[in-house]
Design brief:
By secondary structure, the protein is of the alpha+beta class. About 15% of the residues lie in helices and about 40% in strands. The protein folds into 4 domains: about 260 residues, no CATH class; about 120 residues, no CATH class; about 90 residues, Immunoglobulins (Immunoglobulin-like, Sandwich); about 90 residues, Immunoglobulins (Immunoglobulin-like, Sandwich), CATH 2.60.40.10. The chain is built from 11 helices and 44 strands. About 40% of the residues are buried. The N terminus is likely disordered.
Length: about 675
C-alpha cells in the first residue's frame, strides 16, 4: 500500500479502536493492539476497514464457553491451538435399541491427540474404548459408556459401530476427513439403576487435547505441534481464518526471533523453569480475526508491523537496545505528560488467565501492586485466555502496570533522522532536561507528513530493564485450587444380618418370615431386602422406611432354604448388594416331645424300627437313622415316617449285614427335631 495512504489511515485507525473501547492509553494491550490494527487494515485495504468498524465484533471464546457440546445446524469450525479442555459440536445424535450414539467434532483440523476425557467434569479412564472409572458407569461388570476418537486425518475412517447401527444414514463414506472427533456411545439401564449409573443423566463429554499439530515453525519451516504463541501468530497470519497472507509475505527472520524469544526459559516463584510465552486457546472461524490476533499479540508481547519492503514483520516480546537516537537538533517539538493524574494512574494490576490446574477455567492471579485501601482501589485488569501459567500472567501484569503509569510523549521529528522510526519498537530520545537518554516505546504507527517532511509519533517512557522480572519477589501466590469433591457411591448396608421369625396366623398355626437388621448409617437411608429360594425361583424384594433399621420379608415357605441380600437407597440411587446370607425358614421352632418305646429288630438285609409317637400337637413324623457306632455323629438318615401323635408306629428299611445302631428323632411340621432316641445294637444278617 502506498505510504501516503498508510499515514492518512493510521490516526483514523487509532480513533476507531478507541471508539470501540480500546483506549490508546491502555498500553498493556494496546502496544500490540494499535500496531496490529494498523497492519491488518493496511494489508486488507480501506474498504474492509470501513465495514469492519461498524460490524459487530465476535471475540475469541472464553474457557467457560467450551463447557457444553453445541447443537446447531451448521456450527462454525473450531480451531484449537495448544493444550485445551473443551467440548465440541454435534455432528450426529441418534438412539437405537436403547443406546444413544453421539458424534462430536472437537476441532476442524488434525490434532496431536486427546489426553483426558471427561463426562460431566468427571475424569474417566478408558480400557480400550470402554469407560472403566468412575465405577458408577459400570453395571454388572459391563461398561455402559464407550468413547472412540479420530484425530482428523486427511483420509479418515468411519466409526464401524455407527455404520453397523445406522447403515441407511451413516455409511463408510461418512469419514469426517480433517475433523478431530469423538464417538460417544451410552447404553440405557433399568429405571432403578438410572440414578446410580448416570447420576447426572446423559453424560456430557469434554476432553483435554493437544490441538493443531501442523503449525509451521518460522525457524525451521517444519510443521508440527507447538504451544509457542509466536508460532500460533505466524500460522494465524497465513491462514484463511486470519490475515490470509502467503508465507512469502512474511519476514521470516523477525518471526523466527519472536518464536525463539517465546521459547526462552524463565523461572517461576517456585524456582522452576517454564517457557516465556507459551499458552493455548481455541476459537471459531467466525470470530473476529483482529481480536483473535490481538489476543496472541498481547500474550506474547508481539507488535506486528509492515516493513519498508512490504513484508510483514514482528517485534518480539523482548527489549532491544535502540539503534535510533534522536537529539534536540532532530526534534521539532516534544510533548511531555508526566501522567501523574489520579484518573489515569493505577495502584495495582489484577490478572485473569486460563489455569489448567483449575480445570482450564478462568482464574484470578495474585495482584501486582498495592490496591488503595478504600472502595476506590484504582486497579485495572489484564485478562487473556491464551495465557495458561501464573508466572506468565504475572509478568504481563507488571508490564501493564509500568505502561499504565509511565510518562507519555508526543514527538515531532525531522524526516531524515526519524525515517526508520516506523520499523522500530524502541527509540532513544535525548532532549534535556526532561528526556535525557530516555528510552521510548512507540505506541501506534508513526505519521509521515510529506508536506513538512516530518514524522510524528507517540510513546511512553520505559526503563531499559522493562522485561526484568524477579518471580521470587514479584510473582506472588495465586489462590488455592478448588479441588472438586469426588463423587461417593451410596454405601452398602453396614451390620446386615437376617433372623428367621415366626408369627401366629390363627387356628394355632404359625408362619415364618425373615427380619433383616442393619447398623445405623444415616437417617435418610432406606434399606431394601431381597430374597430367593436357594433352589431358584422368583426374586422378591421389600423396601424399608427411611431411617428404620429393620426390614421384614413376606411369609416364607416352611422348611425351605433362602438366600438373602440387601442394599441401601439414597436419593433414588442404590448401593451395591451385600454378600448373600443363607437361612432356612422355620415356622415352628419348638420341637415335639421325644419318641418312647423305641426298639429295632434286625433280619436278613433289613431293620424294623418300633416307637411310640409323643403326645405333642406339633408332632408330624419321625426320622430314622443308622450308624455303625452308637453315636448320632456320622449317622445316616434312612427314612422319614409321618404319622399322628400318641400312636405306636413302625417302619422297615433295608440295611447291610453287621452290627448297627439305630436312632429315632421326632420332628414337627417345620422339621424342628427333638432329641434322638437310640435303639441299641441291631444285628443284620
Amino acid at each position: 500500500m502506498p505510504q501516503l495512504l498508510a499515514t492518512a489511515l493510521v490516526p483514523w485507525i487509532s480513533n476507531a479502536l478507541i471508539g470501540l473501547g480500546l483506549s490508546g492509553l491502555a498500553f498493556g494491550a494496546t502496544v500490540g493492539a494499535i500496531a496490529l490494527g494498523a497492519s491488518y487494515l493496511l494489508l486488507a485495504g480501506g474498504a474492509y476497514l470501513l465495514s469492519a468498524a461498524f460490524a459487530p465484533s465476535t471475540s475469541a471464546p472464553k474457557p467457560e464457553d467450551g463447557k457444553y457440546n453445541l447443537k446447531q445446524s451448521v456450527p462454525s469450525l473450531a480451531y484449537v491451538l495448544g493444550r485445551n479442555k473443551k467440548a465440541g459440536d454435534y455432528a450426529f445424535l441418534e438412539e437405537k435399541k436403547g443406546t444413544a450414539h453421539h458424534v462430536i467434532v472437537w476441532a476442524a483440523h488434525h490434532i496431536r491427540g486427546f489426553n483426558t476425557h471427561y463426562l460431566h467434569d468427571e475424569k474417566v479412564t478408558l480400557t480400550g474404548t470402554s469407560v472403566t472409572t468412575p465405577k458408577h458407569f459400570v453395571l454388572n461388570e459391563n461398561s455402559k459408556v464407550r468413547i472412540d476418537t479420530r484425530l482428523g486425518n486427511n483420509a479418515s475412517t468411519a466409526y464401524a459401530a455407527l455404520v453397523s447401527a445406522f447403515p441407511s444414514i451413516w455409511t463408510a463414506n461418512h469419514r469426517g476427513d480433517g475433523l478431530a472427533s469423538v464417538y460417544l456411545r451410552v447404553a440405557s439401564v433399568k429405571a432403578e439403576d438410572l440414578q446410580k449409573v448416570f447420576p447426572n443423566h446423559m453424560p456430557l463429554h469434554s476432553a483435554i487435547g493437544e490441538g493443531h499439530d501442523r503449525l509451521i515453525d518460522p525457524r525451521t519451516g517444519a510443521a508440527g505441534y507447538s504451544e509457542n504463541l509466536a508460532v500460533f501468530r505466524y500460522w494465524h497470519m497465513t491462514h484463511p481464518v486470519g490475515a490470509k497472507l502467503k508465507r512469502s509475505d512474511m519476514h521470516d527472520p523477525d518471526w523466527a526471533r519472536a518464536a525463539a524469544v517465546a521459547d526462552q526459559i524463565v523461572l517461576n516463584r517456585e524456582d522452576k523453569p517454564e517457557p516465556r510465552y507459551h499458552g493455548g486457546f481455541w476459537f471459531r472461524a467466525n470470530n473476529d480475526p483482529v481480536q483473535v490476533g490481538r489476543l496472541m499479540d498481547q500474550a506474547a508481547e508481539l507488535v506486528v508491523y509492515e516493513r519498508a519492503d512490504g513484508k510483514v514483520g514482528v517485534h518480539a516480546g523482548e527489549y532491544v537496545e535502540p539503534d535510533i537516537r534522536l537529539t534536540a537538533n532532530d526534534l521539532i517539538s516534544v510533548g511531555f505528560d508526566p501522567n501523574k493524574r489520579r484518573a489515569s494512574n493505577v495502584l495495582a494490576m489484577r490478572g485473569r488467565y486460563t489455569d489448567p490446574e483449575k480445570g482450564f477455567n478462568t482464574a484470578d492471579a495474585a495482584i501486582y501492586g498495592v490496591p488503595y485501601p478504600t472502595d476506590d482501589e484504582r486497579t485495572k485488569t489484564v485478562e487473556n485466555q491464551a495465557v495458561q501459567r501464573h508466572n506468565h500472567i504475572s509478568r504481563m501484569q507488571k508490564l501493564a502496570y509500568i505502561r499504565a503509569n509511565a510518562p507519555r510523549v508526543r514527538i515531532l521529528a525531522h524526516y531524515e533522522p526519524a525515517r526508520n522510526v516506523p520499523y522500530r519498537r524502541f527509540v532513544r530520545i535525548h532532549c534535556p532536561p526532561r528526556l535525557t537518554e530516555t528510552v521510548i516505546e512507540i505506541i501506534g504507527r508513526p505519521t509521515l507528513s510529506l508536506r513538512n517532511l516530518t514524522y510524528e509519533f507517540e510513546g511512553i517512557v520505559v526503563p531499559a530493564n522493562l522485561y526484568a522480572f524477579n518471580a521470587a519477589t514479584e510473582e506472588g501466590a495465586p489462590g488455592a485450587n478448588v479441588l472438586p469433591v469426588e463423587r461417593e457411591d451410596v454405601p452398602a448396608p453396614d451390620g446386615f444380618d437376617v433372623t428367621i421369625r415366626q408369627e401366629d396366623v390363627g387356628g394355632g398355626s404359625t408362619a415364618a418370615f425373615a427380619e433383616a437388621s442393619f447398623a445405623f448409617q444415616d437417617e435418610t437411608f432406606q434399606y431394601e431386602l431381597e430374597w430367593q429360594k436357594v433352589s431358584g425361583g422368583e426374586v422378591q424384594t421389600r423396601l424399608g422406611v427411611g431411617g428404620e433399621l429393620t426390614v421384614r420379608s413376606m411369609y416364607l415357605a416352611d422348611g425351605v432354604a433362602y438366600r438373602f441380600s440387601a442394599r441401601t437407597w439414597s436419593s433414588g440411587t442404590a448401593s451395591e448388594r451385600t454378600p448373600d446370607i443363607i437361612r432356612t425358614a422355620t415356622a415352628d421352632p419348638v420341637p415335639p416331645g421325644v419318641v418312647t418305646g423305641v426298639s429295632a429288630i434286625g433280619a436278613a438285609g433289613q431293620v424294623t424300627f418300633h416307637w411310640t409317637a409323643p403326645n405333642s400337637a406339633n408332632y408330624v413324623g419321625a426320622r430314622l437313622y443308622l450308624n455303625s457306632t452308637n453315636s448320632m455323629t456320622g449317622a445316616t438318615l434312612v427314612a422319614v415316617e409321618y404319622g399322628p401323635p400318641n400312636v405306636v408306629d413302625d417302619r422297615t428299611v433295608s440295611a447291610g449285614a453287621g452290627t448297627l445302631y439305630g436312632f429315632v428323632v421326632a420332628i414337627n411340621g417345620s422339621g424342628t427335631a427333638a432329641a434322638p432316641v437310640p435303639t441299641g445294637a441291631i444285628t443284620v444278617t
